[in-house]
Amino acid sequence: MMKAFKPTWMVNTIYSISPSQLKSHGIRAVFTDLDNTLIAWNNPDGTPELKAWMQSLKDANIPLLVVSNNSHNRIERAVAKLELPFISRALKPLATGINRAMKKLELKPHEVVMVGDQLLTDIAASNQAGVYSILVKPLIDSDQWNTQINRFFEKYVMKQMLKENPTLSWQESLND
């Protein structure tokens, strides 16, 4: 059962995932959750570190696309300054949004990685879609009310998953 929630990698922050690491694994596009993964849920402007990371992906010709359960209007407002394409109402933990994003970019599952901060939505959807997945630590400790419910259950799932996969641990990069 815990296999559904097992990420390919667990990396401390999205910003430490380099284009060269992605390319070494054959990854041609990055899909990312929005809140507490790409930006803090309460700060849509992003950080200089985010902008530098986004530029490094752009320079390496690796598209970045937001795949979020949020509404079209919420994501559009949040990423307006970042000028990112997105898939709204992704229906994670289902693979629906990831599949729509792959179709949009004409990519196959082995060419994509989904990055997110939640096992129960982002990683479960990644595994269902058959794409690589990276679990990152949330950017900030607070969450929207609806995410707080997931975090409660996620603690148990994480404990069980790590018990079943003792070699899985937090890394600084994909190549650790």
Automatic annotation (TrEMBL):
Alphabetical list of CDD domains matching this protein: HAD_BsYqeG-like
Keyword set, alphabetical order: Hydrolase, Magnesium
Cofactor(s) named in the record: Mg(2+)
GO molecular function, one term: phosphatidylglycerophosphatase activity
Keyword Disulfide bond: no
Any GO BP annotation: riboflavin biosynthetic process
Protein name: YqeG family HAD IIIA-type phosphatase
